[in-house]
Amino acid sequence: MTYSVAVSGASGYAGGEILRILAAHPDVEIRTVTAHSNAGQDLVQQQPHLRSLAHLTLQKTAPEVLAGHDIVFLALPHGESGRFTDALSDTPLVIDAGADHRLSARSDWDQFYGGDFHEPWEYGVPELLVHGVKQRERLVGARRIAAPGCNASTVSLSLAPGVAAGVIDTSDIVTVLAVGPSGAGKSLKTDLLASEILGSANPYAVGGAHRHIPEIRQALAAAAPEGDVALGSGTPQAAGAGIRISFTPIIVPMARGILATSTAPIAPGVTDADIRDAWEAAYGDETFVQLLPPGRFPRTADVMGANTALLGLAIDRDANRVVVVAAVDNLVKGTAGAAIQSMNLALGLPEGRALTTNGLAP
After folding, report:
1. I need a labelling partner for 55 at 20 to 30 A (CA). Which of 152, 182, 236, 237 fits?
2. How far apart are CA 99 and CA 114, in angstroms?
């Protein structure tokens, strides 16, 4: 069976990456691409690298344009996709690459985003632990999927095994991320101009202001054996009340990529073997999340263009902390790749179809 696909926000970075991966997917046909201000232009005017899709023209983003497809991807700014989802109730599968359907708690949405709150959908990170099972089990047959925030899924994948195994203390998590500016989208912003970021490293959303923080707390809470909220459960209380995280992202001059260094205190009585075993048990059989051998740590260059999260694990006994260094391509495993991996699961297709673990080098 060939599934018909529409992609909204197709002129942006996330929409373009969804299209790039889908263009090589044997089970889908990309029939419709939409945009806002760029509607009416040929797709290749905005995405000149997508040569195989040169026959497509950007249409306006409207419910009547998106309706009538088997699958709709919403790659729209935060707060925008929610107003389309009710109108797509007859669409068999809708995948939102924005934040509108990620959070379970209205209070989190009100604090970090504001505007209309929309019901949570199944979270599109198959490898995440959720009360002892993998999130992929919840994605099989799903009709509504919320693709993750790139920083949020990187940190959550880094620490979820330690939470699930009880080997780390979640009351003092610290994570610092070097991120590429493509994660901020394609809109023109002065602080993202090349002249502002080349040769510089620029912190932003410092001091608990970043919108991905509640998403991380929610995912880590769900990783606990008896966490306080399950992903997509619709629990009204704020998720992860017992999880405290200091989160500092830093824009660095690379177009794409995230290198996240996350640390947490070691729980009392836990051995080094217990710690290593927790991560190996979680990811030893995974294709797209891989734990590197002891003493090895990833680079963003290793995952460029790949749907892979590479993790390096260290145990700092002097500081009594576990250290996890994670590298992902924010536009692939962080967004579009996770969305398509989740799509494959929802449709009963091989999970890795059209996705690669191989990066680009040099």
Report:
1. 182
2. 11
How, if at all, do strands 321-328 and 258-265 pair? antiparallel
- Give the residue ranges of DSSP H helices in 67-121: 82-85, 106-112
Of 271, 242, 266, residue with least CA distance to 324: 266
150 is catalytic: yes
Q: How does pLDDT run across 295-309, given as a tens digit for each residue?
A: 999 999 999 999 999
Burial class (CB in 10 A: 0-12, 13-18, 19+), 125: buried
Task: Assign 3-state DSSP to the chain and report helix, strand, coil percentages, each to 5.
Answer: 30, 20, 50
* Residue of 142, 150, 155, 336 marked active site: 150
Q: CA dist 4 to 66, 190, 286, Å?
A: 11, 38, 29
Average pLDDT for the chain:
93
Q: For the residues of 318-337, what is the DSSP string, one character each? A: TTTEEEEEEEE-TTIIIIIH
Per-residue CA distances from 29 to 2, 7, 26, 167, 250 (Å): 7, 11, 8, 46, 38
Token duo for residue 342: 């989740």
